[in-house]
Structure formats: structure tokens, C-alpha cells
Design brief:
Strand content: 15-25%
Radius of gyration: 21 Å
Helix content: 40-55%
Strand order of the largest sheet: 4-5-13-10-11-12
Bound molecules: pyridoxal-5'-phosphate
């Protein structure tokens, strides 16, 4: 299997190249050159997620340097539970938040780390994973690369703009993970990261690696949990479900669409968004017109210009077909808080603000079998959820462990020079 850029289908790349480079030279995103076709039978005899993941991922890894390592990469990545739980006759929830940082981004970050460490020669110079984050990504990347020989992680996050528990998850690592609280916003963090990738000092002194959410190594493993969920649903009910996916940059939804494209029984993928309206506007007007980001309660989905739309439009050149397979629903902050309260009453389930957008979107598709995708643990967003439910949310073990660790964080002026100066000093 080869991969090509969304902007040029002629030039082909190996999977390893796409994993190591994140973006094609033409600025496009890597996508598979074709989609292998699976049937229910293709997965006969397989029950466990690492095995199902491995079967689905095999064709994408064929003839790549990583091919022989795929089973081990899957075992290492999918080592925590991803349960599908029933809420009522028509509704299930797929809980993606039982990993080390309690959000679905753990899956992609771990898979990418497992791949990249197998692509690195034992005596290669240290690789520096440089990542800008507005919260969940940085924590997942830190957890995935923490203590991994041959790698260090530098996280930039906007000071005072992430929740207290998110900050703790970014700064409680130590060892090979360094966190900087940038005096600015997320865009400043991203600007510094971009500048570092083309800066002479960094080119000479560090071997930089990007682990951002457009890397195909983060998308492919996400498709695997949709493969398993749709397969399980089909085996039990004989019906193809709707997948309702809380969406920001559209990576998780693209993975769901790739699972559908390969023949898995998925009726429709519903993009549940917060008040950032770029996606829902597109479905209404057929015009792609990104708008500035607005701040909402579901902050990991505060994206005004979702990068992975480029992959979705590449998959669906025909708008009519796109509208048949995909739908989108916007939830305002008020609809999010209402959905958190109603889900607690109706289903006795505690949802984070992101998952609540999916619960809200489901009301449009009540007559169909739906799987709501739960992207983060509610305890990560306790300042929003606890006052609504008027009780404390139990803290999962992984989060509790981090909360009790000391923080290691340095304040940083929002310039590349400041970062370079800090990093030129040896690791403390
Ligand atoms: C990142 C994130 C999302 C959005 O996922 P995309 O793949 O960017 O669409 C939703 N919920 C949570 C909790 C997240 O961390």
C-alpha cells in the first residue's frame, strides 16, 4: 500500500515516510491510495481489539518497513479497555477515555509513538517531539513518549488557558518531557512550533519530530475501534449503526469514515460540533468557509478551520454522496449543559462537554440505532460537569496518579528565541 497527498494523487509515499513527515511537501495531508474491502467474514474468529485492529491495519502496512511489527504495535497501543456500553434499545456509547490521559487521543499518540520508535535506529541522535497543545493532545503525546529511549518531548501550552487538571496532565511528567507555559494563546504556541521546524539552530542541534493530529499515524488506529464497535453491533443486532462523533479538527470522524469506506457496517457518520459553525455551515451551503474560532465549554473542539476536512473532501469529491454518508449537528453551550443533565437523568451516565454534543445530536436521529462516541472522561472537566450534576465526579486512577505528582513547568515568552535559549541549556 502506498499513500499520496490530498493535493497530488500522482506522487506515492511509503507509510513510514508519511508517519515521519506528517505533511506532504505540497502542504497536503497523506491519505491511502486505495481502500481495501472487508466483509463481516474477514473478522471471523476475532474478538479482541488488538486482533481486529491488526487485521484491519494489515493492508495499510503491507510492504512497509513496519509491516512485521504491526501485531506488537497493536498489542502495545490497545492495552486499555474501549468498552461499548448499552444505554437504551437504540443507543450505545463507545468509551474511548480509559487510557493514560483519559481522552481518545491516547490511542493515536501511543500508536504513533510505537511506530516512530521502531523506525529509529538504536544509536540515532535523540529525537525531539515538539508539540503545541490546547490541552488533550500534549498530555497524550507526553504519556506516549514518556521514558521512551531516543525521544524527548517539548510541550508548549497557553498559560492560564487550559483547565487545572489539563495543566497537571501536561506538567507532571519530568524525565524526558518538558512543558512550557507560553505567555500567549494557542496560536502563539503553534506559531513557535512552526518556526522551530524551519529554524537553522533547531535544524542543526535537534532532530525534530511532529506528533500533531494531522499525522496519519494518529488516524489509522482510531479507525480500528470503529471497526470493532460496528462489527460487534452488527453481530448482535444485524443492523448498521450511526456513529455520532464529537468533532473539532475532524481526525476522529475521518477515521470513522475510513472504516465505513472499507466496507464495515456503519450507516452514517454524524459530526457533532460545538458552536464553532464551519462544519455545519458547509453542510448547509456546500461552501467551505472557515470562520474564526469561538471559545466553548467543549474546548478540545474549539476549531475554526478543521484541517481534516481536506481528507473528507478527498474521500467524497461528490457532495451528494457526502451528504448521504455524513450529517452534522451543532450544539450550543446551553444545549451541551442540558445534554449533560438529561443524560444523567435518562441514562445515569456522566458525560464530558464534548461527549454531550453527541448526546445532543442524537435527538435528531432518535429512530435509528446510534453509537455515541465518548471522547474524554468527565472528571477532566469537573469544573463544568460537577456543578451541573451537583455531585463530585469520581476521578479515574490514571488521572489521580498524575494529580499527586509535582509539576515541572517553565514560563516562556511567546517567541522562538525564548524557547531556543531555554533548550540550549542542558536538561535539568
Ligand atoms: C481532540 C478532541 C476532540 C476532537 O477530535 P477531532 O479528531 O479533532 O475532531 C473531541 N473531544 C475531545 C475530548 C478531544 O480531546
Amino acid at each position: 500500500m502506498k499513500f499520496h497527498s490530498t493535493r497530488n494523487h500522482d506522487r506515492k509515499y511509503a507509510l513510514s515516510y508519511a508517519l515521519e513527515h506528517s505533511l506532504a511537501e505540497d502542504g497536503g495531508l497523506f491519505v491511502p491510495e486505495s481502500f481495501p474491502q472487508f466483509t463481516i467474514k474477514s473478522f471471523d474468529g476475532l474478538e479482541l481489539l488488538p486482533d481486529i485492529a491488526c487485521r484491519w491495519l494489515e493492508p495499510f502496512f503491507q510492504n512497509d518497513r513496519l509491516q512485521e511489527f504491526l501485531p506488537e504495535i497493536c498489542r502495545q497501543t490497545f492495552s486499555f479497555p474501549i468498552p461499548l456500553k448499552r444505554l437504551d434499545d437504540k443507543t450505545e456509547v463507545l468509551e474511548l477515555f480509559h487510557g493514560p490521559t483519559c481522552a481518545f487521543k491516547d490511542v493515536g499518540a501511543r500508536f504513533l509513538a510505537e511506530c516512530l520508535s521502531r523506525l529509529t535506529e538504536p544509536n540515532a541522535p535523540l529525537k525531539t517531539v515538539l508539540v503545541a497543545t490546547s490541552g488533550d493532545t500534549g498530555a497524550a503525546v507526553a504519556a506516549a513518549f514518556y521514558g521512551r529511549p531516543g525521544f524527548e518531548v517539548i510541550i508548549l501550552f497557553p498559560r492560564g488557558k487550559v483547565s487545572a487538571r489539563q495543566e497537571k496532565q501536561l506538567t507532571s511528567w519530568g524525565q524526558n518531557v518538558r512543558a512550557f507555559a507560553v505567555q500567549g494563546d494557542f496560536d502563539d504556541c503553534q506559531r513557535i512550533v512552526k518556526a522551530a521546524f524551519s529554524d537553522p539552530w533547531w535544524k542543526l542541534n535537534r532532530s525534530l519530530v511532529s506528533a500533531n493530529s494531522i499525522n496519519i499515524g494518529r488516524l489509522l488506529p482510531q479507525a480500528a475501534y470503529y471497526v470493532k464497535a460496528s462489527l460487534t453491533h452488527w453481530r448482535e443486532e444485524g443492523v448498521a449503526p450511526f456513529l455520532i462523533v464529537p468533532s473539532g479538527n475532524l481526525g476522529n470522524a475521518t477515521a470513522a469514515l475510513w472504516a465505513k469506506k472499507t466496507g464495515l457496517p456503519i450507516e452514517k457518520v454524524v459530526l457533532a460540533t460545538n458552536a464553532n459553525a464551519t462544519i455545519t455551515n458547509f453542510f448547509r451551503t456546500e461552501k467551505w468557509a472557515p470562520v474564526p474560532t469561538v471559545v466553548t465549554l467543549a474546548n478540545a473542539m474549539d476549531v475554526g478551520n478543521p484541517s481534516n476536512m481536506e481528507r473528507i473532501r478527498d474521500l467524497y469529491p461528490d457532495f451528494k454522496k457526502l451528504k448521504t454518508d455524513i450529517d452534522s449537528v451543532l450544539a450550543t453551550d446551553l444545549q451541551i449543559t442540558t445534554a449533560i443533565k438529561e443524560s444523567d437523568i435518562k441514562w445515569k451516565v456522566e458525560f464530558c462537554p464534548h461527549t454531550a454534543t453527541a448526546a445532543f445530536a442524537r435527538t435528531n436521529f432518535k429512530d435509528f440505532a446510534s453509537i455515541l462516541v465518548a471522547t474524554a472522561h468527565p472528571a477532566k472537566f469537573e469544573t463544568i460537569v460537577e456543578p451541573l450534576l451537583k455531585r463530585p465526579i469520581e476521578i479515574p486512577l490514571a488521572l489521580n496518579k498524575l494529580l499527586s505528582q509535582p509539576s515541572h513547568v517553565k514560563a516562556l515568552e511567546p517567541t522562538l528565541e525564548a524557547l531556543t535559549k531555554s533548550c540550549a541549556e542542558p536538561l535539568a
